[in-house]
Amino acid sequence: MAYVITEKCLGERYGHCQGVCPTEAIYAGTYQGKDFMVIDPVVCISCGACATECPVGSIVESEDMDPTYAKINADLAEKFKANPKVTARPKDEAPKKPTNKLV
């Protein structure tokens, strides 16, 4: 099963996950008019490197943990794939979303 980037990333996007992914399965783009990142379930090898890098804990280890966002990741992956890589924000920068907390 692939890892999944959840709603916590929507409008937040720190970007560190993209830089550590050994298979380059993480892509950036815009969803619902907000910055977002997705994990391509076809390319993801479930190594977990991305999850430990997310300052707000927006990545879960299984599609079963967030089936709604698992589908969103899968649906957007092909669309986002050609987008350029993002410049990561500082990990200690305060979250943009008031509901997110640094972990």
Characterize the structure shown.
The structure is a single chain. This protein is of the alpha+beta class and 103 residues long. It has one domain (4-80): Alpha-Beta Plaits (2-Layer Sandwich), CATH 3.30.70. Helix content is 23%, strand content 16%. It has three helices and four strands. It has helices at residues 16-20, 49-53, 67-80, and strands at residues 4-5, 26-31, 34-39, 59-60. The strands form two sheets. The chain has a two-stranded antiparallel sheet. The chain has a two-stranded antiparallel sheet with strand order 2-3. β2 (26-31) and β3 form a beta hairpin. The protein is globular, with a radius of gyration of 12 Å.
Spatial order of the strands in the main sheet? 1-4
| Biggest sheet architecture | 2 strands, antiparallel
CATH class: Alpha Beta
- CATH fold descriptor: Alpha-Beta Plaits
Q: Specify the overall morphology.
A: globular
User: What is the overall number of helices?
Assistant: 3
Order of helices and strands: EHEEHEH
Radius of gyration: 12 Å
**Overall pLDDT:** 97
Number of domains: 1
Contiguous runs where pLDDT drops below 50 for at least 5 residues: none
Distance between the termini: 24 Å
Structural class: alpha+beta
State the CATH architecture.
2-Layer Sandwich
Q: Tally of extended strands?
A: 4
Strand content: 15-25%
Instruction: State the share of residues found in helices, binned by percent.
Output: 10-25%
